[in-house]
Amino acid sequence: MIALASLRERRRSLLGTLLTLAVAVAVLTVCGLLLGSARPVTPDRYAASPVLIRPVPPSNPEAFTEPRPWPHDQAAALATRLAAVPGVSAVVPVHRFYAQLLHDGALVAGEREAYNWSSAVLGGYRLAEGRAPAAAGEVALGEDFGLPPGAWVELLTATGPQPFTVTGTVDGSGIWVGDVTAGGGVPVIGLLTGEDADPAAVAAAVADVVGADGVVLTGDARGALEPVGDARTRWIGLQVLSALAALGTFVSVFIVASTFAFATRQRHRELGLLRLLGAVPRQVRGWVLGEVLLLGLLGGAIGAPAGLLAAGPMAGWLVRTGFEPASFTVLYQPVVPAAALAAGVLVALAGAWAAARRAARVGPLAALREAAVDDRPVSRVRLLAGAAALVGAVAVGVAATRASGADLGSYALYAALLLVAAGSLLAPLLLPGAVRLLTVPFAGGRGATVLLVRQHVAIAARRSASAAAPVLLCVAFTVLIGGMVQTTTAYYGLNRVTVADATAVVVPDGTPGLSDAAVTAVGGLSTLPTTLYDGVEPLPAAGVTPAEHTVLTVASGSLTALHRSPAGFVTTAVKPTGAMPPSGTGAPAAPTPSAGGPVVPVAVAQGFATSADWAMGSSHAVFGPDGRPITLEVVAVLTGGPLPAGILLDRAVVRAIDPSALTPVVYAAQPVSADAVAGLGARPLSAAAYAASGQDEDDRLVWVFTALLIGVSAGFALLAVVNTMLMSTTGRAGDLRVLKLSGATRAQVLGLLAAETAAVVVTGAALGLAVAVAALAALADGLSGQLGVAVPMVIPWGTLAATVGVCLVLAVVAALLPALGSRREAGPASV
């Protein structure tokens, strides 16, 4: 009977480890499948064109900037040469600009760009009803908008709402205007080929014609034309999946290692008997590793199919939350689950290697030991390692006082990780005293249950520390990550509104940015971002007005010169007439070409001026966002910060060269009513509300990413808590029977187990909270010093309460289950 009970206890102790391995393999399978599926997809609007040409892209693919477009004249000359290539039946330059449909004063979700009608053929689109747009003020809409020909609509453009008449509907999606309306640079040239033409041969001939002026794309390579926003989203999703895979691997190794180390210690008598019977260390080590190998194979056999089933729903969730574009689909590859299974086995073996070595050192006399007293709860090596981690955390904290920006957050994270390591290593020393303090309020600290809890923790400090360590890690990680995001969000929000001395803030609402009409309606301070090009490399820039001078610090030169009329430039605004001018969106007229391009005065950040050799008074030939050449003359160098970009221009110049530029946010000195920006895709907020919450898409994705990391890490940690408590109670069956024979009732024994488990969990949670608070306090203090105003340390109390509550409930249940089940398994002597 005792042997049967021991076998059942052994099976129970291995169940948690098997589940952990299965979950790890499932996570690796899902991440592997989704990582392999994260490939660019050809946009539908170019699907019918077998050969596409784009300008040469920037050298850094992670710049997420559109390649410098061809100017209209250069694109026209290139199109003429391409039309002469044998097999080419049509050459179609593409024009596009920012536009969103307004119907009855409300934004219609969906398309955010309008295209020239002649490019509709590249996607195979045809008119379903009505006629094609031709004159100014005419538009054709996709059938999904549900608006018939003759309807009157507005398009929200970069300058504001513009009236249009619907002339036709298209058998697909999109916003299409006449070629006379859509102007500006040309980002893509599409080709149509004859029925008998060989696309490969046509592409080769086209490449000879294009030369160094562009890149020819065919087949799957046309996916490079996916929108920059989709490419950036796909890159963010890649980081998320990579982080999940790395976190799953790391945490599973940690949990497997700690679980097998604890299990090996619980089985000292069993291993001692093997040594007593003549087993040599190599045999014991091989036995332990062989058992782990079988567990790894079984866990992989369970986890790999589960990962295959979960990949589809996970892909849908990534699309809904914004970590992958709408075109994302799962590509199932058999090699992925096989590799995940192999990785699971390797993870199990790596995690159990230290436990196997320790098992081989168990001496034969261990079979004769009955007591579970820790005569040396902390070895000398463990004590030295814990002390070193603690000293390292203090050193990193001191270094954090000299850090700034993102480095400060990194230092806070490093300090927290060192504190977690120190807390885990020194837990056997810290727990007895902490539990003693925790139990003082109960029964005056002298009740029988209280005394037994204290003694059990004191004499089995390592066992208690093994149970507290996963809780410490879980609480520290969840509170730290959540608190860091909230604290830094508050900092950046406070930073922006403090510098601008704002009372109200206006942010986009359903749009990628704010139009000029919204900016004018609000007033206040704002910038108009754009991109210039040094050859093909992007140069972030922004347009400002004299109003923004109040937040800029001049090191040399004059900001007044920034707003002088550029040579060869016409920046008089065009009066809206219900149609777009050739430059794109009712913007000021485009620059007049001249030798070397018009000369534009600019101010540059001091760091940029030093690194790029843009000294005061220097001139630099660059290209504008429409592809036309311009010459920049440095008239001021700025110091301090924060600056919106390395290069600042007059706002009117930015509007002239970039008809689709949008303002990200406006800081107003007076409160703004919702009626003032109605129908303009804008939403007013108080400065306090803006500072307290992230408003842009990046902030939202950071929060989702944070929740995902917390969920995965907390899930693994909770598995460790359950598994450790199951093994802990299983290994104490003899102690519990002694208590029962000493006169304790079954309810008292169960109460003692629950009380001891709760004390260990709460103590571990307190240590984890202390670690997180120390790191967050250092982070908030450093940010406050940089900003000059108090940045609050934000502790996610809701996350903390939920984490501790779940840990407590699961740990108590896991501790009581073996005790409740032992009555049926071990007979009358059981609990």
UniProtKB/TrEMBL annotation:
The places in or outside the cell where this protein is found are:
Cell membrane
A Pfam family recorded for this sequence: FtsX
The ABC3 transporter permease C-terminal domain, residue ranges: 244-363, 709-824
Keyword presence, Transmembrane helix:
yes
Q: How does it sit in the membrane?
A: Multi-pass membrane protein
Write down the superkingdom of origin. Bacteria
* Keywords annotated in UniProt: Cell membrane, Membrane, Transmembrane, Transmembrane helix
So where does this one cross the membrane? 240-263, 284-311, 331-356, 383-405, 411-431, 464-485, 701-726, 747-780, 800-820
The UniProt entry lists the main location of this chain as: membrane
| Protein family per UniProt | Belongs to the ABC-4 integral membrane protein family.
Q: What is this protein called?
A: FtsX-like permease family protein
